[in-house]
Amino acid sequence: MSFFISDAIAEGAAPVAAAGQTDPLASLILPIGLVILFYFFLIRPQSKRQKEHKKMVNDLQKGEEVLTSGGILGKITGINDDFVTLEIASGVSLSIQKSAVQTIMPKGTIKDQSK
Question: How do residues 51-68 score in pLDDT, each as one tens digit?
Fold first, then answer.
């Protein structure tokens, strides 16, 4: 009797039940793969950089020329447990945390910068 609306077919419910029977192992492949990718591309390289920075900070010595994370270039004149004293100009010294040291510069970098 309905001219514009087609009658519902009872067999339409059967494929829905079959779709619910997916393999649970197959549904876990994508999340496990994402965790593995995050580990190799994000977590592992970051922990490696942290270990290298910690080793560099522990091996600091007097007389080394360093660059801080704030961009200050100076020569180490004193070292404590947590702090380093940097001479950034003749007669001007700063006390900074060891962890703020970003890189160790080659000898003579300060002389090259003062030209």
Answer: 999 999 999 999 999 999
Residue ranges of alpha helices (H) inside 1-115 are 14-19, 24-38, 44-58, 109-113
- Domain membership of residue 5 (yes or no) is no
> Amino acid letter at 55?
K
- pLDDT-above-70 percentage for the chain: 81
Same domain (yes/no): 48, 29: yes
Domain region containing 78: 61-113
d(CA 79, CA 58): 10
66 beta partners: 74, 104
Same domain, 48 and 73: no
> 């079959």: which residue's tokens?
18
pTM value is: 0.68
Structure tokens at 89: 């100009």
